[in-house]
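Q: How do we represent a protein-ligand complex in a form that can be generated token by token?
A: Start from the inputs.
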Amino acid sequence: MQELGRLEDLPEDYRAALTAQNLVPLWPSLRAVLPPGKPIPRTKPTCWPYQTLRPLLIQAGELTPIEKAERRVLVLANPGHGLEKMQASATIYLGMQLLLPGEWAPAHRHTPNAVRMIVEGEGAYTTVDGEKCLMCRGDLILTPTGLWHEHGHDGDKPVVWLDVLDLPMVYYMEASYVTEGKAQAVTPESADRAYQRGGVVPSPVFTRASQPYPMLRYPWVEVRAALQALAASQPDIEAVQVAYVNPETGADCQKILGFSALMLRPGERLALPARSSAMVFHQIEGCAAVSLDGHQFSLGEADTCCIPGYTPLTLSNSAADQPAFIFIADDAPLQKKLGVYEVRH
Ligand code: 1HN
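Then emit the structure tokens for the protein with 1-hydroxynaphthalene-2-carboxylic acid bound:
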């Protein structure tokens, strides 16, 4: 590939004249914005073990009352982007949130989309758009763009969950903002019960049917059962994986980030081809190794890691007697809509 002229090759007075007119020559930066063959990601493969994170999060509970935090979160920040950017990848924000017994995180709504993957504890709930969603370990709860949400806790031990947001993307678009609200009135019907069985949806009318986010809570018991049924009924299937979708349309449950759950059977090793989307792995149950060029992460329960796009990797469950369950987030829905998604075999 032809080497292009550098900025230093240009006379200083010419460069000054360009700067004075808010003009910039393209050719000194062309190779940086269009690298040959594949992008040069800022996102570094990064792992956040829960064992080291948890004590610091509990300490945040002692240091900062909920009123002074609103959301008591330690952000899983990728050093490749600079910690202050609070990004796990170019598009994905990750945070571990702590809610203590009796605490309340007040109602608000905002433009970025959020989901919560419950990591630990019982008795907490998120009320989303009037629907009270109980938080149990492994559950996925959606807080889509524009919907009111608040968190409460009636239990007696700390509750922790992983927040996954498309905040970096929405912030980059200069479209990120919040509106504060009052405590929501809870509506009696629950969409999570209405959509609990695969293949059937409420008909012909259901109060949420006209809304873009009909299902807000995906209980782990159901998702786990779906994975085990898939593994049992299709022993030759390449990957025992299910996607979290809108039950009315079958489309990804959110528009920017995609979510799925993967089961690695005992001893299974799964090679994933390079995909353009960045990925987050969060271990729900069991243990798994994530291996890629130059890195190997051992994920135990509640550990989380982030891998840049265009990276082939393998996932393996070295346990011979128990399955491993992994929650996966990626930015494939956004990339597919934009037409830039690719898989390289
Ligand atoms: C948010 O609304 C929550 O509601 C958590 O729990 C983390 C990070 C950035 C922006 C909004 C929540 C968030 C957030």
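The two ends are 24 Å apart (CA to CA). The chain has seven helices and 23 strands.
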